[in-house]
Amino acid sequence: MLTGKQKRFLRAKAHHLRPIFQVGKDGVNENMITQINEALEKRELIKISILQNCLEDKDEVANDLVNGTDAELVQIIGNNVILYKESMENKQIQLP
């Protein structure tokens, strides 16, 4: 689990990131989970955009993403979800 200080640190780092995935009307599926897992392994911190036509609630989408990827939810801001997962091989972010 992330502490408040760590979440603040990650939010600051994620501020300038662009969303690299979009969740649309189909919601979260297995293929998307696989791709997000690969991206988390490479980058550790990613932003995912939830489109207007997504039928699920953004909290539900965030929950599905966290459960599917075993990542930590850093923040839901507007229609963006920020996820963090420590990389096994490409560790770049040193948490405070």
TrEMBL record:
GO molecular function: RNA binding
Lineage: Bacteria, Bacillati, Bacillota, Bacilli, Bacillales
Keyword RNA-binding: yes
Residue ranges constituting the CRM domain according to the UniProt record: 1-96
Coiled coil: none
Full protein name: Ribosome assembly RNA-binding protein YhbY
InterPro entries: RNA-binding_CRM, RNA-binding_domain, RNA-binding_YhbY, YhbY-like_sf
Organism: Natronobacillus azotifigens
UniProt keywords, alphabetically: RNA-binding
NCBIfam families: RNA_bind_YhbY
